[in-house]
Specification:
Layout lengths: L1 E9 L15 E7 L10 E4 L4 E6 L5 E4 L1 H8 L14 E4 L7 E3 L8 E5 L11 E4 L5 H12 L1 H6 L16 E2 L7 H8 L8 H18 L1 E2 L9 H14 L3 E5 L3 H4 L4
Parallel strand pairs: 2-5, 3-8
Antiparallel strand pairs: 1-2, 1-7, 1-12, 3-9, 4-5, 4-6, 7-8, 10-11
Helix pairs in contact: 2-4, 4-5
The protein binds ligand ZZB.
Length: about 260
C-alpha cells in the first residue's frame, strides 16, 4: 500500500517535550491515500494515549510518528543504515496536542494538533491529516470539539485552536456538492465521532464517488478530474518538500502464520 506522508512542520513555541530539538526542523508526519485533499486540511489528529517517537531522518529533519512507522521508514531509505533508527525521544500523544503546525497546500497558515480517539495505532504513522470537507470521520471529530467545551478542556485545547477552522471546499462531487463529508454527515444525522456504523456508511458513500467523479476546485489542477491528476498532485507535494512517499507492508506478508 502506497501512502503519501505529509510533513507538518512544528512552529514556535515548541512544546516541552520537543524543546530539545529547537535548532532543527521537526515535523509531525501524517499518512494519506488522498493527497488531492490536502488543500482542505484544518488540523491534524493525534491520539492522546498512543506513544509516539522522535527520530532523525537523512534529508527531512526530525520526524514524529509511531515507532512502528519509523521502523518501516528505516527500511525505505529514510535513515542512514537500513533497518536502523535511533529513538531520540518517546512522547505520549497527550503531550503533542495543541501544537501549532505548518502544513502544505492548506489555505490556513497555521493549524493545530487536536485529539481524535478513533486513530488506529497500527496504521500509517498514527497521526492523521484532517480534511473535514471530504472525510466524514474528520468532520465528526472536529464538530465534537467545536460543540463540546468540556471535551476541549479535558485535553487542554484552547478555543482559538478549533473554533476558527471551517471545512474548505476542495472537490466538487456530483450529488454531494463541494463538501461531501458535511453533506453525508447531515444526511445520515451523524451525532459524534463514536457513531461508527453511520460513519462507515458515510465513508463508503463518499469514497468511490470522490475518486471517480470528483473535480478539483483549487490549486494548479483546478477543473480536472481527480483520477487524472492525483499522481501529479502527489509529485507536486514531494517537489515542494511537503511530502515523501512511503509503503506500508501488507499484513499478510509480514505475518508468519500463513
Ligand atoms: C486525508 C483524507 C481525506 C483521508 C479524505 C480520507 C478522506 P483507508 O482508506 O480506510 O485505508 N488514516 C490514516 N492513518 C490512520 C490511522 N492510523 N487511524 C485512523 N485513520 C487513519 O483510510 C485511509 C485514510 O484513513 C487516510 O486518508 C487517513 O485519512 C486516515 F477526504 O487522509 B485520509 C472518505 C475518506 N476521505
Amino acid at each position: 500500500q502506497e501512502y503519501t506522508l505529509i510533513m507538518m512542520q512544528v512552529l514556535e513555541p515548541l512544546p516541552e517535550p520537543l524543546k530539545c530539538f529547537s535548532t532543527k526542523k521537526v515535523s509531525y508526519i501524517t499518512a494519506t491515500l488522498r493527497p488531492e485533499t490536502m488543500y482542505g486540511q484544518t488540523n491534524c489528529w493525534v491520539h492522546p494515549d498512543i506513544k509516539y517517537i522522535a527520530f532523525e531522518t537523512l534529508k527531512n529533519g526530525i520526524f514524529i510518528c509511531t515507532k512502528r512507522a519509523a521502523r518501516n521508514m528505516s527500511y525505505q531509505g529514510f535513515t542512514e543504515n537500513d533497518g536502523e533508527f535511533k529513538i531520540l525521544k518517546e512522547i505520549v500523544g497527550q503531550d503533542l496536542l495543541g501544537v501549532a503546525l505548518k502544513a502544505p497546500f492548506t489555505s490556513y497558515s497555521k493549524i493545530y494538533a487536536l485529539p481524535m480517539l478513533t486513530i488506529k495505532e497500527d496504521k500509517g504513522t498514527g497521526i492523521v491529516s484532517s480534511v473535514p470537507s471530504d472525510s466524514p470521520d474528520d468532520y465528526a471529530a472536529l464538530v465534537d470539539l467545536q460543540k463540546k467545551a468540556p471535551f476541549r478542556e479535558k485535553y487542554g485545547i484552547k478555543d482559538e485552536m478549533v473554533l476558527p477552522f471551517k471545512p474548505i471546499p476542495v472537490l466538487e462531487i456530483p450529488e454531494y456538492g463541494n463538501m461531501s463529508a458535511v453533506h453525508v454527515y447531515e444526511k445520515l444525522k451523524i451525532q459524534s465521532q463514536n457513531d461508527r456504523e453511520k460513519l462507515n456508511q458515510a465513508k463508503d458513500m463518499v469514497y468511490l464517488k470522490g475518486f471517480y467523479d470528483g473535480v478539483l476546485l483549487v490549486g494548479d489542477y483546478k477543473g480536472k478530474k481527480i483520477q487524472d491528476v492525483k499522481k501529479n498532485i502527489q509529485n507536486q507535494l514531494v517537489a515542494e518538500n511537503g511530502a515523501v512517499i512511503y509503503y506500508e507492508p501488507e499484513k499478510t506478508i509480514i505475518s508468519r502464520s500463513g
